[in-house]
Amino acid sequence: MRTSPSRRVLVAAAVVVGALVAPALTALPASAATTQYPTWQDVQQAKGNEQAAAAEVTKVQAALQSVQADAAAKSQRALDAAAAADRAEADLAAATQTASTLRTQADDAERTAAQAQDRAGQLAAILYRDGSQNAMTTRIATTHDPDQLLYQLGAVDQLSSTWEGVLEDASVAGRTAESLHDQAERAESERSTLAAAAEDRSASARTASDAAARAVADTQQHSDELYAQLAALKDTTATTEQQYELGVQVAAQQAAQQRARERAAAAAAQQAAAATPSSPAPAATSGGSGTSYPSTGGVTVDPAGAQAYARSAIGAYGWGGDQFSCLVSLWTQESGWRANALNASSGAYGIPQSLPANKMAVAGADWRTNAATQINWGLAYIHDAYGSPCAAWNHEMSVNPHWY
C-alpha cells in the first residue's frame, strides 16, 4: 500500500501520541467483526516488557496477514470476474459478426436465386416465341429453307441448354439461401444466448468489483493502524515497518516457490520415462501474445506515471539510473507498464506480472488497481530473487519463453 507524505506525518504523530497516552479503543466495522484486531491499549500495556512486546508484535503481524488475505481473495475474484466479462463480450462480438455475415450471405443468395429464376423465365419465353410473336416451333415446322432449319434447330438446342443451366443455378442458389437462412437463425439464437451471458458476467464483475473495493478500503484502514502499532512496539516508523513486512513476506513467497520447484523436480525425476513435464510456473512471467487488459473498475492505466513512480522508488534499494534502464526494459516487455495487463493463459497480472496475481496483496490491498502498489511488490520481488533489475533483465533474456 502506498503511503502519501501527509499520511506518513499523521501516522508518525499518532505513534508519538500513542506512546504518551492510552488511546481509546478503535471502533471496528461490521465486516471486521470476525477478526480480533490488537488495540492501542494492548500495545501500550505491552511496551516496556520485552516478552509482552514480542508477543504483541506477533499478534499484530497475524492480524495484518489476516486482513490482507481477505482483501486479496476478494480482489482476485474481482479480477477473475472482470476477465470473464471481457471474454464474454469478445464471444458476443464474434457471434454478432457471424450472425450478421450469415444474414448478408443468405440475402445475397436469395437475390441470386431470384435473378436466376427471372432469367430462366425469359429464356423459356424466347424458346416459345421469336420477335414476330410467332411460335418458334411453328416457324421451324413450316420453313422450306434447309439452312434456316438447321440454324433454328441449333438455336433451340443452345437456348435449351442455357435454360437448363440457369434453372440449375436457380435451384442451387435457392438451396444455398435456405441453408444460409437456417445457419443465420441458429447464429442469432447463439448470439442471444451469449448476449444474456455477457450481461450476467458484466453484472457479476460489477458486484465483485464493489465487494473488492469495500474490502480494500477496510483493509487499508486497519493496515495503517496495524503498521503504526508495530512502529510503536519497535520504536520505528510505520513506513519502515511496512517496508520490512513487505520484504519478509516476499521472501516467504520466494521460499514457498522454491519448495514447489523442488517438489516438481522430484516428481519429474520419478516420472522420467514419461513425457517431459513443463517447467514450474515462475513468480513473474512474460505477458506475451496472450496478454489482455480487463476492465478492472478503478484501475488507472498510466505507463508514464508508473515509470516516474518506479524511478522515485528504486533509491530505497540503492539502485541508480543504470538499474532503472534495465527495469524499464524488463517491465516494458512484461506488461508495457500497464497496471491492468493480464496474461490470459497463466494469470500473471499487473506491471510486474505477478503470478499468481494476489501475491501482490502483501504490498497493499489495492494491488488490483494501484500501479504504485504493484511496483512496490515488483521491486521487492526483484531485490529478493535477483538482487537488481539488471540481473532480472539478464535472466529474462536468457530463457525462452521469457520470464523472470
From TrEMBL:
Coiled-coil stretches: 85-119
Tree of life domain: Bacteria
PROSITE patterns cross-referenced by the UniProt entry: TAT
Keyword terms of this UniProt record: Coiled coil, Signal
Residue ranges, compositional bias (Low complexity): 265-286
Signal peptide region: 1-32
Disordered: annotated segments: 262-296
InterPro entries named in the record: Lysozyme-like_dom_sf, TAT_signal
Full protein name: Transglycosylase SLT domain-containing protein
Protein species of origin: Curtobacterium oceanosedimentum
The organism's taxonomic lineage, starting at the top: Bacteria, Bacillati, Actinomycetota, Actinomycetes, Micrococcales
